[in-house]
Amino acid sequence: MTDAVPRAVVAALDDPFAQLTGPLADTRKLRFEVASTATLTPHVQRLELTAAELAGFSYQPGQDVMVLVAAEGRKPVRRRYTIRSFDRMARMITIDVVLHGDGPGERWVRSARPGDRIEGIGPRGKIFTDPAADWHLFMGDESALPAIQAMTESLPGDADATLVLEVPEAADEQEVLAAARTRVSWLHRLGRPAGDASALAAEATEVELPPGNGRAYLLGEARVVLAMREVLAGRGLPAEQMSPKAYWGRGRANAGHGEPTRDG
Ligand SMILES: Cc1cc2nc3c(=O)[nH]c(=O)nc-3n(C[C@H](O)[C@H](O)[C@H](O)COP(=O)(O)OP(=O)(O)OC[C@H]3O[C@@H](n4cnc5c(N)ncnc54)[C@H](O)[C@@H]3O)c2cc1C
């Protein structure tokens, strides 16, 4: 029963999120307890987290929770992980976390055991599927897979979804079960470094952009997201039809509030 950050340290934090006001007005504090942790694929660990505050919790597929993984002195270090699924009866959310190497988030995930506690805030995030879109294009790396899966699964049966997903290797592929008409392309990095834009940018030049008011959701490493966005813009897709979101920055730790640093 270990606390990710000891309670005495939490109490003394100089915490910008001590009050859930402004953009956090629709969120709540979630005192999570780890219910289970298991290997999902070679590079992804799946954790189930329970919290009493999940009673009456609601969220939109694609939203995330922010967890307090460490403290640097009095500074909180938070990381954001997408809600892969939510079991309302069990008051439990599932998160899928990439094991990429090292970082305070990864260290907590690797050490977490059932019964361990961690403070969360959620739901967070502003990228959802657009119900008015004629088609949906999702492109991203393994950090975006939970969001892309959750959003794709939420689409109705008459929706069209194209998924272009980059993962380290074939064993990191996951089944995509969705009611929508769904086409999935897997790209394997096979030794290329994570955050290398070449494969996803190349796919962005080739992927079909059907006529109509479609929407492209571009998620993952900051420069890869930018590269995909530039390619699609060059092909004439207007900015208002794109939902880009940087999840991490290659070679740079995310900031204490869980987002990539600006130049990362
Ligand atoms: C809204 C949102 C939702 C997110 N959802 C998820 C999710 O569901 N699952 C998930 O795994 N991640 C998700 N992320 C990304 C995750 O928060 C970051 O990857 C975070 O940086 C991990 O923290 P860390 O402490 O392990 O590494 P950090 O301390 O941030 O970084 C340490 C080093 O690791 C590198 N690094 C960080 N992340 C990765 C990665 N994915 N691949 C390769 N290298 C990396 C950095 O470049 C840096 O060099 C999300 C991010 C956001 C903003």
Summarize the structure.
By secondary structure, the protein is of the alpha/beta class. It has helices at residues 7-11, 104-111, 145-153, 198-206, 222-234, and strands at 28-41, 44-50, 64-72, 75-82, 85-87, 92-98, 117-124, 136-140, 160-167, 181-188, 215-221, 242-248.
Q: In words, what does this structure look like?
A:
The protein is of the alpha/beta class. The protein folds into two domains: 7-124, Translation factors (Elongation Factor Tu (Ef-tu), domain 3, Beta Barrel); 136-248, Nucleotide-binding domain of ferredoxin-NADP reductase (FNR) module (Rossmann fold, 3-Layer(aba) Sandwich). The chain has five helices and twelve strands. The strands form two sheets. The chain has a seven-stranded antiparallel β-sheet with strand order 4-3-7-1-2-6-5. A five-stranded parallel β-sheet has the order 10-9-8-11-12, with helices on both faces. Strand 5 and strand 6 (92-98) form a beta hairpin. The longest helix is centred in the last third of the chain and has 13 residues, at 222-234. The radius of gyration is 18 Å and the shape is globular. Bound molecules: flavin-adenine dinucleotide (FAD).
